[in-house]
Amino acid sequence: MERNNIIQLTETYILNIFENDLPSDLHYHDLDHTMSVRETSLILGEHYDIGAANMEAMELAALLHDTGYVKAYTGHEIVSAELAEAFLSEHNYPPRQITLVKELIDATKLVYEPKNLLQRIIKDSDLNNLGQKKYMKTITSLRSEMKTFLGLEYEDAAFMEMNLKFMDGHSYFTEKANELFNERKAKNRKKVVKALETATAKTTPPPPGKEKKKNKSTKKKKAAPAEETINGNKSAQMMFKTALRNHIDLTSIADNKANIMLSINALIITISLPLLASSISEDAKMIFPTFILLTTCVASIIYATLATRPIKTKGLTSIEKIQSGTTNLFFYGNFYKMKFSDYKSGIRMIIEDDAKLDDSIISDLYYLGKALGNKFTQLRVCYLIFMIGTTLTVLAFAILFFLTH
Predict the structure, then answer these.
(1) φ, ψ (nearest 5 deg) of residue 202
(2) Which CATH number fits domain 1-126: 2.30.42.10, 3.40.718.10, 3.30.365.10, 1.10.3210.10?
(3) How crowded is the C-beta side of 12, counted as CA atoms within 13 Å?
(4) What is the DSSP letter of 337?
(5) How far from the centroid of its chain's Cα atoms is residue 325's Cα?
(6) C-alpha distances in angstroms, 73 versus 26, 104, 299, 309, 365?
(7) Where are the domains of the chain?
(8) Which end of the chain has fewer CB atoms within 10 angstroms, the N or the C?
């Protein structure tokens, strides 16, 4: 099988595992965690320029590193490595790469000391939650897992104290991870300290005579169930990420094809024009195949240029469009002329409203697809012109040769 297809096959494989085989009580080691580890490992891998083969192994390891939870909670890394080997071998993935993937999965063990850059990257990626806004939510999910699968039940103060000790004893192995996560990690530490102080205060009895009167309990109205959004649908998130990645890859392929046509036709014109010009001066009939050749090259260059030409954008978006959800502030063409304060307000408006965020994601995928469709349409015309034109040129030269000899 082609190696560039293994990522898509693995995505489908883990999506099926997480949806159908993973215990429902795994709220921390879920699909969101896996995709977050994958995203961080790619960012760090690109920063350190680890090479295409290592990048692919890193991405596979990130996707597969928690699959072992379907069979075991403690020691799941060993099971994950076994499942990864079985799956990759089934798809004829190179043995040397499989070994590397297994080593990277093994490196995600909590007490493992990384031996090289690749292992340091995946270790940092696996603990990226320490430097994320949702840290307090993730440790709540982890606490639930520990109770269900390990039988460990902590009081609030003890649990927060354990997390504080872990944060104080942890440091990222790569400079880039420190740059990405340390600032938020420090803020999360403050939240843990505050939560610890609150929990400790609750368990400490008040001085005599200072007991607080209990307030009458009030019934809270149940909130109406919110409409499910992309943000809450793991399958939809997976499909959107896969589609966006495929669109970006295809855009790169289209640009490469257009650049090839530009180079080939420019080379033909550069080499053939001086030679054919002298031939025309000796034999006027040579003007016909020369005209066909030059017309073909120029037309091909025009369509190849159209395929790579950037689209025209205004660079400015009004607040009204943001509020109505008819624009996408994640595309540079809609904001590069905006003031930073306006852009910041617009982004906050989008991310605080799940419906607007969904609209932005859908809009981004749609217009990226439209641009990609135009590219390949123009490329198709370009290749068609080149194919027909070169064929007619050869035929014209052949006919002219037989008529004059």
Answers:
(1) -70, -35
(2) 1.10.3210.10
(3) 8
(4) T
(5) 23
(6) 10, 18, 63, 52, 37
(7) 1-126, 128-203, 234-404
(8) C
152: left (phi over 0), alpha (psi -120 to 50) or beta: beta
Residue type, 111: V
Distance CA 126, CA 256 (A): 35
CA dihedral 90, 95, 99, 104 (to 10 degrees): -70
d(CA 351, CA 353): 5
Q: In the structure encoding, which two tokens stand for residue 55, read together?
A: 């990048």
Question: Whole-model pTM above 0.85?
Answer: no
Helices (H), 170-216: 175-203
Determine the Cα–Cα distance for residues 296 and 390; give it in Å rounded to an integer: 7
Rounded to a whole number of angstroms, the distance between the first and last alpha carbons of the chain is 53
Length of the chain: 405
